[in-house]
Every structure is written in structure tokens, then in C-alpha cells.
Amino acid sequence: MKFNPPAGYKHGQAPRIGVLLVQLGTPDEPTAPALRRYLAQFLSDPRVVEIPRLVWLPILHGIILNVRPAKSARKYASIWMNDGPDKGSPLRVYSEKQAKLLRGYLGDAGIDAEVALAMRYGNPSVESVLNSLLEKNVDRLLVVPMYPQYSATTTASVIDEVNRALFKVRNMPELRFVKHWHDNPAYIDALVASVRRHFEREGVPEKLVMSFHGVPKRTLLLGDPYHCECYKTARLVAERLGWPRDKLVVSFQSRFGKAEWLKPYTQETLVELAKSGTEHVAVMCPAFVSDCLETLEEINDEVRHEFLAAGGKRFDYIPCLNDSDPWIHALTGIVRSHMQGWGDGKADLAQLKTTASEAQRVGASNISEKAA
Fold first, then answer.
1. Does the pTM of the predicted model rise above 0.85?
2. In the chain, what are the domains?
């Protein structure tokens, strides 16, 4: 086993504070080969699929990766950003904007920090971004999995990957992880501001549907807090809005496989609403901070179509927080609260030098006293 320094490391560099934002990930392009690489990494994660490896891997490589990539590529192509200055996967475009804005907001607050973005699956990888930060002598690192509600399938997987990437590092940075912010007041305020803006512009719907990403039901039974945190987020948003409980619907989307997942399922819920006479709904996805395939294609396309086909008259999609000012302010506050005691790096370094000098002075004084 070799424990090496990062490629560009030099002794004498000033220590730095780093903030690493980690999103789920995205394929490099909307093509079947790119999707095959992406899905192979994503669906090989034992945090995501808990089926025993000997059973699951033959299914994954023998069936799924031969069938699903082409279908997924067509879906990604339908939401890929090709026009204007912002090009590529919406998830990556908005995530990069969030990282850039966060860096600026921290700077305005007097915090000199390296801010970087990595993808748990796909590029830029967690390992490559971590190496880049270590080359800049980041010795205090805050890792922010970009999931408001904690789940072992998402947040814990990021923690796994960061630790794996640092396994061979000789000079380990001090690490902190943000576990969740599902009930953070500023995050709730950002969601409420988004809903209010939409209502002012588009009118008030009969029902507000909050669709969260689904996970298998067994994760809840085994102790995963995700389900509870989703419902708490929904309750806090409704309370802050003053929204009646009978007009709020919580549901879960993005099922995969035949196992039972968290219910009620979003698509079935919207179809039932339409069939029961609800004509106008607004749908938001609070578990996602950036618009992506699951929000733009699944919700704003597939679920919209099913709702209207079942008799609904109007389907409004409320975009994710993306690069909105209230959300970046909230993210900045979350980051700063977890960096307490780290200061801006320079002040802390000066304090460390002062403390070391004082310790040496006291030590020398004690030696002199004992000699006397």
C-alpha cells in the first residue's frame, strides 16, 4: 500500500478551507454508450441496490445495461440543454452555477474557501476533485451531499465515496459532512418563496403536490429516516405558506424494479386526482435542488401527460430551487453553520502560530524554573 501526496503538493503552502458539493451525477452526453457507463457505475453501488452481488450483477450486466441505456439516452436528449450559453445536462449546469455563486457569497462574507463540485456517479468524479483540492493544500474540508433529506442510498453513498477516495492519502484533511437540511428554516423559506412566486404568476391550484424521489419501502423498515424527513419538509412548507392540509398531497416518484417502494406513488396519485375531479394541480419536487431528468422528463413530461389524459385540465410544474437567490443564501448559511470554528483560514492560521509560539515560550520558562 502506498500513501502518496497529491501530484502538485508543495511544502510551505498555506492551509486552505475547502467546500465540496457532491451531486448524484449525470452522463457526459445523451447517448447510449454514455448512459451505459453512467448506469453501470450508479447501479453497481450497493447503497443504491441492496440485492446480493452474486444475484444482482449478472442481471445488471446481462439484461439492464443491454436494454436501458438507449431508452434513457432518449429521455436525456429530450431535456438536454443545447441552446444559449448554458449547455449540457441541466443537473450539471445548475450545480455548477450553485458552486460558483456559493464561492462568491462566501467571499462576500469574508470566508476565503475553495469551492468545488463533484458527481457521485459520472464526471467530475469525487476522487479527481478531491485530488485537485488537496493539491491546493485544503486541510479542512466540508463535504455537502446535495440532498436535503438524508438517505443511505444518497448521502451515505457520498460519505462512502469520499472516504474511499481519501484511503491512500498521506496527509488527511480534517473532514466534516453535512448530513441533511430538510428542516433548515432558510431552505424552507426558499421553497416557500418559489411556490409563492409561481402562484402569483400562474394562479393558485386546487392541490399542491410535493413529489419526493422514492426509495424501497424496506429501507424505511430498516431505519432509514428519509420518509420521515420528506414529510417534515412538506409539513413545514405548508405551514409557512398557510396552505390547508386537505389541499396538500405528498407522493413518491422514480420507482425501479418490482419491489414495493414508498407510497403513494406520484403518477398514480395524479391520475386519481384527475379522475376524482381535480382540474388544476401544481407539482414541486423538494428533494431535488437542481432540475434534472427526474423532474423535467418524468414529472413535467410523463406525469403531466398522464394527469391530462385522465381528465385533468391544468398541470403546473414548479421548478427546483436551481440558482435562485433565496436558495443560494440558504446554502451559504448551511455551509457557514458547519464551518464554525474554521474562520476564514488566514485568521485561524495566525492563531495557530501564536498558540505554538506561546506554548514554546511557556515550555522554555518551565524548564528554566525547574533548572533553577
1. yes
2. 185-317 (3.40.50.1400)
Q: Residues near 327 by Cβ (< 8 Å), separated by ≥ 6?
A: 98, 187, 190, 289, 321
Q: Please, are residues 108 and 332 in contact by the beta-carbon 8 Å criterion?
A: no
Residue 306 is assigned to a ligand binding site: no
Q: Is 229 marked as a binding-site residue?
A: no
Q: Which amino acid is at 167?
A: F
Provide φ and ψ at 240, rounded to 5°. -70, -35
- List of residues 6+ apart from 55 with CB closer than 8 A: none
Q: Which of 307, 324, 201, 275 is nearest to 298 (CA)?
A: 307
C-alpha–C-alpha distance, residues 350 and 362, integer Å: 18
Contact yes or no for 219/153 (Cβ under 8 A): yes
- pLDDT tens string 228-247: 999 999 999 999 999 999 99
**Secondary structure of 300-356 in HEC code, one letter for each residue:** HHHHHHHHHHCCCCEEEECCCCCCCHHHHHHHHHHHHHHCCCCCCCHHHHHHHHHHH
